[in-house]
Queue: 3 jobs
Job 1
Amino acid sequence: MLTNVSLFNFERMIIEKKLSRKEQLELAATELFKEKGYAASSMRDLANKLGIEAASLYSHIKSKEEILSNICFRMANEFFEAINKIEIENISASAKLERAIIAHTQVIIKNVSASSVFLHEWRHLNQPKLDEFIAMREDYQNKFISIIEEGIANDEFISIDAKFAVLTILSSLNWIHNWYDPNGKMSPLEIGQQLSRMSINGLKIRF
Amino acid sequence: MLTNVSLFNFERMIIEKKLSRKEQLELAATELFKEKGYAASSMRDLANKLGIEAASLYSHIKSKEEILSNICFRMANEFFEAINKIEIENISASAKLERAIIAHTQVIIKNVSASSVFLHEWRHLNQPKLDEFIAMREDYQNKFISIIEEGIANDEFISIDAKFAVLTILSSLNWIHNWYDPNGKMSPLEIGQQLSRMSINGLKIRF
DNA sequence: ATAATTTGCTAACGAACGTTAGCTTGTTTA
DNA sequence: TAAACAAGCTAACGTTCGTTAGCAAATTAT
């Protein structure tokens, strides 16, 4: 049913011609899952976005959950790569936290839809992927916790429960995908800088 | 199928005996929607939680969406009541923001499951409820924006995009439901105080 | 030129979905 | 005591769901 396929989708498909069909499929799925949520998105919705029949999707994928799983773990790896570069640098806790916040922000902004799916839809993964995902998430948070604990030990930061502080900071960062507008006033770097400024000021000891 | 009903549910039903059957139904739905998400929760799941048949639910409700709608708008009203008390007080912007943050925090902590549904599942509302909900949400945010703009005009706060600041602060608050543990170290009031301290320090001018 | 791969189709499956109709039973109200 | 209501049941409806089987055409690789 070609008439149901929007011009926008055609344009995108042409622009991103280098993408394999499977990649195009996962891109369309990412946008669909972001808009409607995973559970409310049907394979027929997805097929319609691509201008094909639902059954044809299965030439490219094994199951609906496989798509979700690919999106979630690809994003998880992106976040890890970003923080791994920072962890090894020999700088103050404040500087490390600033860079980590900016890096996290950049990953979200570069992948707005995929981040949204990553953040909200992971719970629809089945076992054992679900536990694997949760463990990665915990690892990632622990890297932030270590930075803040270092800052508290250094007297750079106020005495605070580090886990509480991390959850609070990450939750502000993880809201970006809901309001970020590529045509808005703030550039991705400015957003990261403002957020790290607010977060770190919130932690720093006041004289 | 009584064997499928957990002891926990029976206990809860006994403790909250004063609740009408419809209220019990909405309570069970709130927990279910929080755990699995609205779209992934079936009426048969819900019926099973109450130990009755799915068709029996319709003696109490008109539709699945009606349950969601009730949860969302009841919570919206709770948030409004909390902030309306603060708006009219004649205190500094910092003090107003502190009280607003603490009030918001209290509402979430007193209704952890309902807050979770309110924050994540509202998008499954149909029109015209959906637009009505979005408008209320915008109104609520605008009350926070006004407080911060007042603080910027007063030189209490740094010069910052007020909407950006509000979205950042609210997103940290709106994450509480994911980690709050009634048996944890921090009391509801302490959580509110810590969060307002972090948020307001992040906004205040540093000398 | 031929074989293999990619990409799609139609038809259909069994299961699960939200919901309705019509009925029974126990409790409360007039 | 009779009427009204609350709360549940069984049976079933039409629809949508994710997915499979088997086949056809086009493209790519050998």
Note: Residues 21, 52-53, 55-56, 59-60 of chain B lie near DNA strand D (CB under 10 Å from a C1').
Job 2
Amino acid sequence: MPHKSASVKPIPDIVVGRLPFYLRTLRSLAAEGRDITSSLELGTRLGLTSAQIRKDLSYFGEFGKQGLGYNIPFLVGQLRRILKVDRVWEVVLVGAGDLGRAIAHYHGFHDRGFEIRMVFDSDPAKIGQSLADFKIGDMETMVDKVRAAKIRIAMLAVPATAAQKVADLLVKAGAKAILNYAPTALVVPKGVTVQNIDPAAHMQHMTYYLES
Amino acid sequence: MPHKSASVKPIPDIVVGRLPFYLRTLRSLAAEGRDITSSLELGTRLGLTSAQIRKDLSYFGEFGKQGLGYNIPFLVGQLRRILKVDRVWEVVLVGAGDLGRAIAHYHGFHDRGFEIRMVFDSDPAKIGQSLADFKIGDMETMVDKVRAAKIRIAMLAVPATAAQKVADLLVKAGAKAILNYAPTALVVPKGVTVQNIDPAAHMQHMTYYLES
DNA sequence: CAGTGTGAAGAGGTTCACAGCG
DNA sequence: CGCTGTGAACCTCTTCACACTG
């Protein structure tokens, strides 16, 4: 029987997934000029219970003051550290269609820790053209350029039919996180994280609850 | 947002949320010319266990044949019926910035049960302009026009600062489902469903797992 | 005999409730 | 007194395992 390693309680992924929303809400409170909040107020704003907020935060430390609440700038700093967005990550975008262009023009990423630094597409008509501040590169040189720049985060905005092939290339280029906008599931090696964005799936989730 | 009912055991919201992905995968299999599949194959494609697939489907009926598997066209039809996307829903889009324009140009919604029929914006410079097949309408007439058309689904692509006000108007117009692209939580009355899309939150979820 | 459907067991996540501290 | 942090209880979801069937 192999020995079990000392049980280090891992933090549930579902908890990690809520932290960006806590951070988002706290920054919104800060923008309103607030300095202190409580688990109750945060929960109300987020549609969660105060107990859940406290329990989630307690996985990472003791950030509040009993009887008082949470200092907003301090908690923002802690969450940015925990989520590793107390820096700006360089990102590669693959796909320069309508969606890719909208992503490239979106200015909301920088403030939350991300900056697109390269854009690639396979369409010869697009290669060499300008998009936002970038020149669209070709797929043949993509792997080398991404690897050379040590970029580890990718956004994938190509058709579903091409998504897996491009994902394989991104992994080869050293990507460790892929935000997948293509409506298809990606297979990636262990150690690579994928998050999917599928608006139509969300829509279909909602129609279930509609009266016909 | 689980919908409660006193008499019948409600189907878990998390199960409903997976159905669109089952449907998506089944249609992809159908497009490959396949006619039969199994819970094992579906699970592999989706990164889920076969038991989960079977259990989820069993909430809605007995769709498979023991020893054989699932008939793909039949199961596609059942899922479309369950999710109420065996029809095309009319949708109103509010917000004609970069994101709104990308959404309006995206052709992937129709095939999955949705068709944008109206677009509105508050920017006088945009009102009256054309976007895809539509003329951008003003916010003042939005409520009446949406109500008159009996549209119950909205996509919200306005800045976070305006999102709640617009959501209130949409509810007043009779919206029962809102796909919220703004990075802020919406407060809506019971009976209205909201689904949120926040790519930056997904990105921050992934950075947690990256080595610094 | 391959693969579904499903109770039961097991894991995992949420809420409770209260000690403890500012 | 107000609000956090946290074991314990509770509840929900997932996985197991097997009877059953085409």
Note: The first strand of chain B starts at residue 36 and ends at 37.
Job 3
Amino acid sequence: MELKSTAYVILGLLHLHPMSGYEIKSFVDRTTRFFWAASYGQIYPELRRLAEAGLIEGTSKPSGGRRRVEYRLTAAGRKELRSWLQVAPEVNESRDEALLKLFLADAEPEAGIEALEAKRRFHAEKLEQLREIEPVAKAGPNRFPYLVASYGIAHSEWAIAWCDEVLAELRAELSAPQTKTKAPRRSA
Amino acid sequence: MELKSTAYVILGLLHLHPMSGYEIKSFVDRTTRFFWAASYGQIYPELRRLAEAGLIEGTSKPSGGRRRVEYRLTAAGRKELRSWLQVAPEVNESRDEALLKLFLADAEPEAGIEALEAKRRFHAEKLEQLREIEPVAKAGPNRFPYLVASYGIAHSEWAIAWCDEVLAELRAELSAPQTKTKAPRRSA
DNA sequence: CGGCTCATGTAATTCGTTACATGATTCT
DNA sequence: AGAATCATGTAACGAATTACATGAGCCG
């Protein structure tokens, strides 16, 4: 069948329970966005394609007086989801601008510190968000979402610790007088 | 000026020493690809744009008898690189298909194990590659590339440990005939 | 009444990959 | 001679984001 991963996000979420495109979007924003985001520009066209392929089925289920189409998995859709899950995932290389700046920071050493601080801030914020999600995931009927939340938390904790360690070293070094860098600049 | 990150990869590498497009590509493949890949389809057009913008300068430097254009940073290019480095990086959410499958694996629990194993394999392989690079980076004149290599190594080691831990739990549970988890549910 | 949220969608643009095309030179 | 590598590029395609467009119901 060869659908893209984003299509399987939709199939996977509809496996939990029937939803509208709007609900899929907000669900994604609360959960999978940490490792797989999706925008309306993907979701609505994809819903149409999946429906045409017979993997999902949409029925009009207005909420209050608002028009609303609720989609649910068909038997074929469930089968497609399962067979995709059984194939080993390809883990793709991600782009990390902070690491890129860190890598190139010999041209401007204070930028290395800035990059690490930014990475730390990012993980600290992510950690906060995940800690809010975690108990919800734990209480849910499925175990794997909780597992993934745990992964995210442990990962961010690890990253923060690493940043702190290296930042301490770097700061000590850059503030040491014998280094030949420009005057120590303190940024916001 | 507002160039894309890939343009700064080029500026950053040319800051190390003058290079041809071909050399930039192979340099990227040996180093930054772990956090920022680049293809010929980006590199050559970008070299042209950067040259037009006056940030780099290309001169014909045939190697042997092969035509070859070597690019070097101009003063403006160096300045542009520095000012970009000083801006806090935006850390972008990456896409991780293994985590996605793990998240959705309640529809097919063995797939969760498969996903974790794939993630582990990926990190094990990356670790091997990084361990080859590390001593080279350490020996080099710049400290930050080495720092980034260390990050990659520590990160993969952490990820492998996490996968192993969770895999052990999952395997124990799935092979146990009766666990206290909710009775085997049929989907939906 | 006015702003927020629910709800659905499209068009333009950006960014990047893959495949192709070409050709010279060096190595075995 | 033939394969591998050096070297430069383009065209087609793909995936995703952003911005825009529209409208209705809900809440204070």
Note: The beta strands of chain A are 56-60, 69-73.
